[in-house]
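User: I'm putting together notes for a lab meeting next week and I want to include a structural view of one of the chains we've been expressing. I don't have a solved structure, so I'd like a prediction I can at least talk through. The sequence is below, exactly as it appears in our construct file.
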Amino acid sequence: MESKPTLLVVEDNIVNREILCNILEEQFNIITASNGLEGLNFLREHYKEISVVILDINMPVMNGYEFIEAVKGDIKLAKIPIVVTTVHSSINEEIHCLDMGVFDFIAKPYIPKLILTRINNIIRLLESEKSVVDSTTDVLTGVKNRKGYYEDIERFAAWPDAADRNIGVVYMDINGLKAVNDEEDHNAGDLLIKNVVDTAKQVFYDAEIYRLGGDEFVILSFDESESSLGKKVMKLSTCWTENISASMGMVLVHGLENIETGVAEADRNMYEAKNKYYEDRADHNKFFKRILNNDMLRLAGAMTEFLPGGFLAFRLDTGELIHYNRDIVSMLGYNSSKEMRQMVQNNIKNIVHADDYNLLRAGVNVVKHRASGINRVELRLTMKNGNMRLVTMGIRAVNTVTFGEMAYVFLINDRY
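Assistant: Thanks for the context. Below is the predicted structure for the 416-residue chain, given as structure tokens.
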């Protein structure tokens, strides 16, 4: 028969204590204490047995606040949830208790069904958290986690023939995960992680795979030779794509008791591959972005000849104007592009307000507000005479696209 959870009820009032015991005793084992010190002494000796503490605040010898402070200051006791009994009017007392780390409250006069529901919910939550902590499986990928890794290497080292077994160790670090999380979202990052692991499983189908961190994995493949391990790593490297890949380091270990030493060496070897990946990636991205920026600039410039509004492109790092159309010139009140370049020194920082410049650099539509039920945009511009002017534009009037070191800004004026 499954044992019942044990509750510690710390309450000096005999009547309240008896009422709580009568409500709870059918579903729980109940231990009682008549003041905070008595309850604290019992908890320190039997903390492993107690699931929840139910605590009154106003007690002799040691009150509830002193009890909470002592419990939260003891690393062995701090995680035991405390539920305070209180009256409806004591809002300040509740706030103070929450600040001290209390888990929940039970209102007086006691409502049996509510008390049982709250205590059972707390215990279910604790059991759920404990199952997550105790689990050796990574929820996202289905492979074992760091806890599973440490349990396994202890188990492997205890095998009778551990000293004679060879094991191939592969350390994997996913490429580009931070960029995917930053530029797309964490759902896309999770998908990348799963795709990398699924690909690794296809090659190392009979090996153990562990997730040691966010983007770091270890593969342990038993009874490998250096040649067979190398072939599998080579095969896995051919499975990677432009968007799904991992840098890898490998080592063959003799004797299962040496696994951790092998993992550390494979980790070092992985960093050589990781550095090579980023070197190649940097050259590729630089070339790709330069070509694409040129194409985008030509396309955007051509489009704006047919669009009702202005267009400009500038460098994110310096603010240097790379391109703009005639509508920008006229919107700013200049007679010609030459005159505009001279007055603004060919820099967007001299055209828009500093706050708007920062927003444009971030790729955000400048300043939106609602007027007469229509979305409008305000952009603060520097006029020919040096004065600032607010230009109010229609819906989606300012749209900024950033790519690489460039920002492309489209403006549509009200008059259209």
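A couple of points you could mention at the meeting. The first helix runs from residue 14 to 24. Confidence is low (pLDDT under 50) at residues 365-376.

User: Perfect, that's what I needed.
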